[in-house]
Design goal:
CATH superfamily of one domain: Urease metallochaperone UreE, N-terminal domain
Strand order of the largest sheet: 1-2-6-5
Largest sheet: 4 strands, mixed
CATH architecture of one domain: Sandwich
Number of helices: 8
Shape: elongated
CATH topology of one domain: HSP40/DNAj peptide-binding domain
C-alpha cells in the first residue's frame, strides 16, 4: 500500500491553518468537481481531494495522520505499524464512511472516531462519548492493576493551527481483560449541553507485543525449545507462564511443533483460556571435536533418513 500525502493533494504545507486548508479545498473543488469539469479524470481527482480534506479538516484525524506521516512521502510503500493510533482520544462513534474511501484511508481510519453532528441549541443533551486505544502489558490481565494513562486530544488554537492537549487518567485494568475489550469511564467524555450529563470515555485495550507469549483470544502460546533426546525419550521440564513456572511432562516420541495444553492457564475468565507450549527441537551445536564425534556416532548407529517422504 502506498502512503498518501494529503497535504500534497491539497497543495498546502503541514503547518497550514484550518482556514488555509478550507480555502485550498474550495479552490480545488471549483476546478475539479465533475459538475464543472468534463474531464474523464475529474471524478477520481475530486474523490482524492474530498478524502484529503476529510482528514485534514478533522482535528482528531489530522493529529493522528500527522503522527503517522512524519518523514514519509507520497507514493512511498508502507504499512501502518500496529496500534499507531494508541493514545489519541476521538469523539463520537466509529467512522462508518471508511469503507467508501480508499484502501489507504480505510486502513488508517476504519476504526477511528469522528465528531458527531451538531447539537440542538435548546435541548438538554448528553455529551458525546469519546474513544481511545490503550496498550498495556499482558501481565496486567492476570492480576488487575491501576494504571495512569496519558491521552492526547487534538485542538485548534486561536489561529486555527493544530495542537495537542494531554490529560492523565487513573484507570483500573480489570483482571481477565481481553484484547479488543473496552473499559468504560463514566462521565469522561464531552460535557453535556444545557445541563445534560457528560458523555463517557471508552478505552479499547490492546496488549503490547510480548517477548515470550502469543495471544489468541484468551489462549496463550509459548514456543518451548527441547533437546532431541527430551523429545525422543520423554522428559519433565520447567515451563514459564505469566503466573509462574510449571513442571510439564514431554511425552516420548514428541515431534517438532507438538502442542502441550495446560488447561485453564491462559487469560483469566469464565471460562479461562488455555496455555499451549509448542515444542521446537533445538539441535546442540557441533562446535567441539567431542560433539562432532557424537554426531558421527549417531549417523552410523541410527538408520534415519529425514527425507524418506520425498523419495519417489
Amino acid at each position: 500500500m502506498q502512503f498518501k500525502d494529503y497535504y500534497e493533494v491539497l497543495g498546502v504545507p503541514r503547518t497550514a491553518s484550518a482556514d488555509e486548508i478550507k480555502k485550498a479545498f474550495r479552490k480545488l473543488a471549483r476546478k475539479h468537481h465533475p459538475d464543472l469539469n468534463p474531464a474523464a479524470e475529474a471524478q477520481a481527482r475530486m474523490q482524492e481531494i474530498n478524502e484529503a480534506y476529510g482528514v485534514l479538516s478533522d482535528v482528531e484525524k489530522r493529529a493522528a495522520y500527522d503522527k503517522l506521516g512524519q518523514g514519509l512521502r507520497g507514493g512511498q510503500e508502507f504499512r501502518p505499524p500496529p496500534d499507531w493510533d494508541a493514545g489519541f482520544e476521538f469523539a463520537g462513534a466509529p467512522d462508518e464512511a471508511a469503507e467508501a474511501q480508499s484502501e489507504f484511508f480505510a486502513n488508517l481510519f476504519g476504526a477511528a472516531r469522528r465528531a458527531g453532528a451538531g447539537r440542538g441549541a435548546e435541548r438538554r443533551m448528553t455529551g458525546e462519548d469519546h474513544h481511545a486505544k490503550i496498550v498495556i502489558p499482558l501481565e496486567d490481565t492476570f492480576g488487575g492493576v491501576t494504571r495512569t494513562i496519558t491521552l492526547a486530544t487534538p485542538e485548534l488554537d486561536a489561529a486555527g493551527h493544530l495542537s495537542l492537549r494531554e490529560r492523565q487518567l487513573s484507570v483500573a485494568i480489570p483482571k481477565g481483560v481481553r484484547a479488543g475489550q473496552q473499559i468504560r469511564l463514566a462521565g469522561q467524555g464531552s460535557p453535556g449541553f444545557n445541563g445534560g450529563a457528560p458523555g463517557d470515555l471508552y478505552l479499547e485495550v490492546e496488549f503490547a507485543p510480548h517477548a515470550r507469549y502469543r495471544v489468541d483470544g484468551r489462549d496463550l502460546y509459548l514456543t518451548l525449545p527441547v533437546a532431541p533426546w527430551e523429545a525422543a525419550l520423554g522428559a519433565t521440564v520447567q515451563v514459564p507462564t505469566p503466573t509462574g513456572e510449571l513442571e510439564v511432562g514431554i511425552p516420548a516420541g514428541s515431534a517438532n511443533g507438538r502442542k502441550l495444553r495446560l488447561k485453564g492457564r491462559g487469560i483469566p475468565g469464565t471460562p479461562p483460556g488455555d496455555f499451549y507450549a509448542v515444542l521446537e527441537l533445538a539441535l546442540p551445536p557441533a562446535d567441539t571435536e567431542a560433539a562432532r564425534a557424537l554426531y558421527r556416532q549417531m549417523a552410523q548407529a541410527m538408520p534415519f533418513n529425514p527425507r524418506r517422504d520425498l523419495e519417489a
